[in-house]
Structures are given as C-alpha cells and as structure tokens.
Amino acid sequence: MIFIIINTIIVLLICVLAIILYLCLDKKIIYKNLKSKHVVVTGGSSGIGKAAAVEAAKLGAHVTIIGRDEQKLKSAVMDISNVCIAQDEQKIQYAVLDVTSDYLSIEKSLSALEINIGPIFMLINCAGMCICGQFENMKVENIKQMIDLNYFGTAYPTRYVLKGMKDRNEGIVVFVSSEAALLGIYGYSAYSAAKWAIRGLAESVLMELVGTNVRLMLAFPPDTDTPGFQIEELTKPKETKLISGSGGLQSPEEVGKKMIHDALKGKVYSVYGFSGKLLSILNCGSIESPGQVLLQIFSLGFLRAIMALILLSFHKIVRDGLKERLEKGKEKVK
C-alpha cells in the first residue's frame, strides 16, 4: 500500500513539474522558411558553413557568406546562387572579413551588409579551426589562434547582431560548437577549451534572451568531412583518431541542413547521432522543452553508467598508446 502511495506521489510530482515547465517556458516561434530573410554565415566558403548557406538559399533567404579567401567565396556564391528558388529576387553576396580582427572592423562590415540587403535575421557562426596534439607539445601561437577564431570569431559578430534583433524582437543566432565541448578528449585540449567557451557564452546569452522572440541555438556537430577536418587530421594523434572515429564521419550537407531546420524549429540544441544525444543529455544545461527535462530525469542514471563504460574504453586506448610509445623509446635506446 505504501509503495503504491509513493509511486502515485512521484507520478503526480512529475506531472506538476511538466505543467509548470510548459507554462513557464517561452513559447517557440517556428519558421517554415526563410523567404526574403537575410542570413549571414561566417566561415561560409566551405564545409558546414557553405552547406548551411546552400540550405538557407533553398528556403528563399538572401545570403551573405563571410570568409578570408576571396576566390573561395566567389566560387561558393556561384554554387549558392544556383540553388535559389527565386533567382531574380534572392540576393547572394560575400564579404571578405577576418572575424578575429578588432570589433570595430567587424561592426563596420556587418553594418554595411545590412545596408545592402537588410537587417540580419539569422547569424550562423561557422568560422572555426582545430589543431590537435598533446597540450604540452602545442605551439603557444596555435592555442591563441584557436581561441581567437573559435571564440572571439563567434562572440564579436554575435554582439553586433543582438541589439538589432532585440529592437526588432525577432532573429536567430546559431553557435557552432562541437561534441568536444561536451566531453574532453585526448588531443583536443586547446580546441575543447575554445568550444567549451562558446557553449558557456551561448547558454548565458540564451538566458539574457528570455522574454524576447530572439532565439539562440547551440549546435554540437561530430566529425564532419570538411576541408578543415582534412587539415585537422594532419596533426591528430593516433589515440584521438581512434576515439573520435568511433562516432563516425558526417557529411557537411547533412550537418548544415539539420542545423538550419533545427534553428527554424526553435531548438536550443542541435545534436547528431547517438553520441551527440547521449552527451547532450549527460551535459544538460538550458531547458529546451518539458519532454526533454523529463527524459533527462528518467535516463541520467542509466546513461551515466553507459558513458562510464565508454570512457573506460577511451582510457584503454590512451594507455595502449602510451605503452606503444614507451616500447618504441626503449628500442631506440638499444
């Protein structure tokens, strides 16, 4: 009898929690398309950024891509223009800009873009880079380079667009982080730190947007087959390849398309595959929906046990790598 009463109380408490969450959470504004909206994509000349820009153009948006290589930007603009649903109406342009430059330069460039096409409705922060390696062996300039591009390259453009979006009471900002911001991985130390900083910024700004119609989404893409990933592979330790490779390799088209549609649906987090879903639940931060909260409540203990086993397998990879290097070192001494 007591057992039944306790279970009934628990169920009632969960129902009350779900109702409170439903009533208190901001109602999501869902957009079906981006027709005549201005979408700006940093890092838009290739990879996930270009794929996101292509998807935005397919949904009727005016698109501006930002990057440093003008030839790549010109080529990307042609590809994006070819998929426009209204060739005569949609405006596709590029801007040569280093998003790690001083804030005033970024403000001036983004302001000029708004004069040409109109206010920025969606900002997608895709500019980023990764250099792998054990932390003590990394060049100091490379550590700073990753912080500058991954963090400040997101923070500065976002700071500029927020005021206008708040004034118009509409807009979407997308932060592109990484699964490396959900779990520290061997060889990703400096990169993880930069992407973790993006997550902290995103979740804090998200709370500042409560009560407005401005939305912010944080994407955690896995390994994606981009030009940047191919460069990343050049310095990636064997252990890192074995660990990160267990999650598979996504295409930029899949990631970019999902990112756009998740943002339009009002999602707070955009995750990919089993590993992304698992890590996002274990790292639950901002409240996305009542259903998501209830899923976290009921699954955290079980999923934590699964994650512990996965981590043990990762640790074994690291130990085996260390053992292999030590044995090679002994052979050299001989």
From TrEMBL:
It is found in: Endoplasmic reticulum. It comes from the Eukaryota. InterPro entries: KDSR-like, NAD(P)-bd_dom_sf, SDR_fam. GO terms for biological process: 3-keto-sphinganine metabolic process; sphingolipid biosynthetic process. Its main location: endoplasmic reticulum. One of its GO terms (cellular component) is endoplasmic reticulum membrane. It is an enzyme of class 1 (oxidoreductase). GO terms for molecular function: 3-dehydrosphinganine reductase activity. The chain crosses the membrane at residues 6-25, 172-191, 293-314. CDD domains: KDSR-like_SDR_c. It holds the Pfam family adh_short. Its EC number is 1.1.1.102. It catalyses: sphinganine + NADP(+) = 3-oxosphinganine + NADPH + H(+). Pathway: Lipid metabolism; sphingolipid metabolism; Sphingolipid metabolism. Keywords: Endoplasmic reticulum, Lipid metabolism, Membrane, NADP, Oxidoreductase, Sphingolipid metabolism, Transmembrane, Transmembrane helix. Belongs to the short-chain dehydrogenases/reductases (SDR) family. Catalyzes the reduction of 3'-oxosphinganine (3-ketodihydrosphingosine/KDS) to sphinganine (dihydrosphingosine/DHS), the second step of de novo sphingolipid biosynthesis. This is 3-dehydrosphinganine reductase. It comes from Parnassius mnemosyne (clouded apollo).
